[in-house]
Amino acid sequence: MKRLNKHSAIVDACYEIGATGWFLVVLLVAIPRSLRYLRETIRQIWFVGAKSLIIIMISGLFVGMVLSLQLYYTLSIFGGTSALGTVVALSLYRELGPVVTALLFAGRAGTSITAEIGLMRATDQLSAMELMAVDPIAFVATPRFLAGLISMPLLVAVFNMMGLFGGHLVGVNWLGIDNGTFWSNMTSNVNVWTDVINGEWKAFVFGAAISLIAVFQGYNAPPTSEGVANATTRTVVWASIVILALDFVMTAFLM
Amino acid sequence: MVRVVELSSELSGKKIFERISLEIPRGKITAVMGPSGTGKTTLLRHMTGQLHGVSGKVWVDGLDVAALERKQLYALRERIGFLFQNSALLTDYSVFENVAFPLRQHTRLPEILIRNLVLLKLQAVGLRGAAQLLPSELSGGMARRVALARAIVFDPMLILYDEPFVGLDPIALNQVLKLIRTLNRELGITSILVAHEFAAVRQVADWVHLIAEGRCVASGTPQQLAHADSPWAAQFFGGKIDGPVPFQYPASALDEALGFVGPSS
Description:
Chain A contains nine helices and no strands. Chain A is mostly helical.
C-alpha cells in the first residue's frame, strides 16, 4: 500500500511537470493574442513588479550589509580586505541577486498571482470572460506571465544596486575600507558580460519559471478555499525548488 | 434558435444526458426546469460551447456549436448574453467597468458612447446610481442586476439566464421578470431560463421543458404543464416528495450503511 502511494505521488509529480510544460506552450502560443491587451500587461507589471520594489530594496540593502560584514571577517584572515568590493559585487551579481530576488518574488508576487487567478476561477470570473468572448488565457494568464518575465531582471538590477550600496555602507563607512579601493577593485574585476549579464539571464529564466508556476497553479486550482490555499502553497514550494535547481544548472553552464 | 439533437453527455464519468432532444423557438422565452442536479446548467454550457457531448449535436442560430473554430465560437458568444447563477462579476472592477467590459474588449467606441451605453443599461436595471460601487459593496440581488446589465450591453440575439430568481426580494424579482419580458417582447431577444421557481416562470415563459434523468420528460406551456398528467410534471410542479424523482441521492441501504446488517453476498 505504502509503495502504491509512493508511486502515485511520483506519477502525480510527473503529471504536474508535464501539465506545466504544456501550459507553457499554451502561454507562448497565446502571446500574439495577448498583445491586444498590452494595457493589462502593463497593469500587471505594476502589480507584480513595481509593488515588489519595497521588499526587494530593503532585502537587497540588508543582504549587501551582511555580505560585507561576513566577507570582511573572512578576507581579514588572509589580509585581503581590499578585495571586499569585488567579492561583494561578484556574490551579488552572479548568485545572491538573482536567487534571493527570485525567492522573494515567488513569495510576494507568485502567491498573489496564484491566489488571484484561483479566486477568479472559483467565482466563475474566468468562465464569464470566456462567455463574453474574451480569452482568459490571453487576457488573464499571459499578461501575468509576461509581467513576471519582464519584472524579474529589473528587480534583480535594483536588488544588486541596493546590495552594493549596503556593502559600501558597511565596508567603507563603518569598517573603514578606502572608498577608492572599494570601487576600483570592483570595476576592474567585475565583467559586464560574464558577471552582470549572466546574472540577468538567470533572473529572466527564474522570472519565467516563477510566473509559469504561479499562473499554472492558479489556473488549475480546485474552486474551493482549500484548493486555492493549497495551490498558493504549491506555488511557493515548487518555485523555490525550481529556482534553486535551475540556479545550479545555469551556474554550471554559465561559469 | 437553439436545437439540441440526440445529445449524450458525461461529466467526470457521470452520465448527464442520454440522447436528449429539444428545441428553443426564436423570439420566445423558454424555461428549462427540472430537479437539482439534472444538468440544466450543463445544457446551457453545451449551448455556449464550453462543453462538448459524447454524441449528438447542439445547433445555435444554425451553427453546430461543437464544430466551430475558436474564432467562430467567440463570434457566436459575442451574440449571446449569459447571466450566471452567482453573477460572476469581475471583483476588481467597478459596476460601471463591469458593464463596460464587453464593449471595451470588442469595440473601439469612443469613451463618451461607452459611458452613455453603460449608463442606459444600468438605468434599465435600476442601478445607475451604483455605477461607481465595487461588486463587494452590492447585495446579491443588485449583483444579479449588474450582471444582467452586462449580459445585455451588446443587445444579444440570445440570453441564457442561469437561476435568475434565486435570492431576489419580491421587488427585485418583479423588476427582473419585467426586464426579461421587456427584452424579449420589445427587442425580440430569445431567452432561455434555467429556474426552479414555477410561480415566477409561469409569469414570463412561453414554453417550458422539464428535464429529468438525462432526457426531456415533458414540454408545453406553463399552463399545460401545471395540469399535465405526466408523473414527472405532476411531481415536480406539485412539489411532491414521492414520484419518479427520488428525494435520496443513490446510496446503499440505510440499515447496511449504519452497520445493522452485513452486505448481501
